Amino acid sequence: MNEMNKAAGKNYTLGLNDFSDLTAGEFTTSCAKSMKISNEAVSSKTVFLNMSVDIPESVDWREKGAVTSVKRQGECGACWAFATMAALEGLWQIKTNELISLSAQHLIDCDRESEGCAGGYLDTAIEFETTKSNGGVPKEEDYPYKEIQQACRNDVKPWASFDGYQFVPSGDEQQLLLAVAQQPVAALVAVGDEFEAFGGEGIYSGTCGSELNHAVAIVGYGVIVALRPVILFIPPLKIEIHYTPQYSSAVVILVTPSQLVVPVDFPAQQQWQLKYLRQPDQFYFNYLKPAINNSRSIIQDLVNAQHLDEISIVNNATIVAVIVLQHTAWCFSEGKSNKGDVVIMLH
After folding, report:
1. Exposed/middle/buried for 224, CB within 10 Å: 0-12, 13-18, 19+?
2. Helix (H, G, I), strand (E, B), or coil: what is residue 85?
3. Of 30, 46, 270, 277, which is least surrounded by CB within 10 A?
């Protein structure tokens, strides 16, 4: 595992976690089982959103108070239930201003179209909770998670009710961004072998699997070019200055039991990169300059005390370096730079 962490190009770490003592087969059975959505469900519920609406450059529903605490799935294959509940919890908060954890166990026990801890389906789960359940979805505290499938309880008071659901058109990144801009979205991903050993640090970007096998909640997105994170090494201490959300480099922010963050390389973000590579002054004044100003006092104190050994931009370093160098050259040519900015930029 240590050797794999040393591999060039990795911006995430592998390590020991709750699944480390599982075989690949056991992990697949509990957490990465093949998942599909019926073509009939997709065709009948797919809706194209109004693309005349401006798509925000970044959204983080955690900041907006529409994401509940991270849940521990354990060895029950209930990702489909948790992803469904995350989307419903977000929508409920947006509509009612009440953030509350809804019961994934209710789905595991009562949705007969799915298979409980052996896996389930997003379309049947959301269909069940919006049209078939007994008046609505119970609260987590009233119908808590047990990590096993048990008999469906009909004695629990429903709390939140929903009228329906829609699918985002498959393969349409712009439609997905627009949907996530409106609320958290449940989605399926194809995770590869390294996913089991993700250590919880960095942005997970391992090789994808061959089929959809894990359900997740997309709770935000942002631009891919940014300073994330800046790490300062100061003998004998190590200080980490974590990015602020407005400078996040994660394209899609995904919260899971191990604080997983997954980047999705959308064409829209590639176009965003090209825009700022060609117009580095806009990148500088809109993104880099505010970041420098926010961290100037910390960095300058370290420089003055001669404690600053290294500043390492560890994610998207090549792209950021190109932009910084382009802007540095532009500053010199236009006579618009000052000594402090150039020193910090060149670090």
Report:
1. buried
2. helix
3. 270
How large is the angle between the packed helices 289-304 and 339-346, nearest 10 degrees? 90
Centroid of chain to Cα 33? 20
Q: What ranges do the domains of the chain cover? A: 2-221, 266-346
Please give the structure tokens belonging to residue 37: 């959505």
CATH number of 2-221, picked from 3.90.70.10, 3.40.50.720, 3.40.50.620, 3.40.30.10: 3.90.70.10
The residues pairing with 215 across neighbouring beta strands, listed in sequence order, are: 188
pLDDT band at 172 (very low <50, low <70, confident <90, very high): confident
Per-residue pLDDT at 44 = 53
Please give the angle made by the CA atoms of 263, 88 and 95, to the nearest 5 degrees. Answer: 110
What whole-number distance in Å separates Cα of residue 33 and Cα of residue 294? 44
**Percent helix, strand and coil across the chain, each to the nearest 5:** 40, 15, 45
Residue 248 corresponds to which tokens in the numbers above? 């996040």
User: For 223-280, what is each residue's pLDDT tens digit?
Assistant: 543 322 222 222 222 223 233 333 332 222 222 222 223 333 334 444 444 444 445 4
CA dihedral in degrees (194, 1, 241, 260; nearest 10)?
Answer: 20
β 310-313/230-234 pair status: antiparallel
User: DSSP letter at 26?
Assistant: H
User: What gap in Å lies between CA 1 and CA 3, rounded to an integer?
Assistant: 5
pLDDT of residue 145: 93
- DSSP label of 75: T
Distance (Å, rounded) from C-alpha 31 to C-alpha 112?
20
